[in-house]
Design brief:
The chain has about 200 residues and is an alpha/beta fold. It has 5 helices and 8 strands; from the N terminus they run H-H-E-H-H-E-E-H-E-E-E-E-E. It has one domain (about 10-155, about 180-195).
Length: about 200
Amino acid sequence: MSAKKLVRFDWAMKYILRNKSNFDVLEAFLSNLLKEEITVLDILESESNRDAWRAMERSEMTSQEAENRKFNRVDLKCKDSQGRQIIIEIQNQREADYLQRLLWGTSKAVVESIELGNRYSKVVKVISISILYHTMRVDEKENTDFIYYGMTELVGLHTKKPLVLHETVSKSDKVSVITSKDVFPEYYMIYAEKFQDVI
């Protein structure tokens, strides 16, 4: 039996999924992961992309190094089923202090989402999705899952109930409660190598 050849996600992001006609593949992936209908509006030019090309123009790195740096992070501008604008960051290159890098990346995406003078209500919800082709530690006995998820929710120290910011009423009179988890970033870390023989 011949060996299976699979397309790595980072290669697909570089060469296939940047084409708007292939956004439906990204939308299906994100909708399945986030459990709601996601529409990809655009792939954003990230700061790391611009830095890579500037460095190459100054002859500080080869075109191959710039190409690798350019695609180690991809930012997607999306819209969810509630009409909220969401920026989704996909990064797949190993870095030291990876969790701190994730925090820095989501914080930067939040800051870049709002222009000077705009109200804070214009800040977008950021979801960080990391496609990992490396382990977080040398000894991986503790990390046995293939998808990790985290978010920040403020809860009462005594009541254990979430802090309710406000409620919204839709056209169909459906009441939605808005809490801190609707504002603060969410994180997904996917260990691609742990999906052994599963496509």
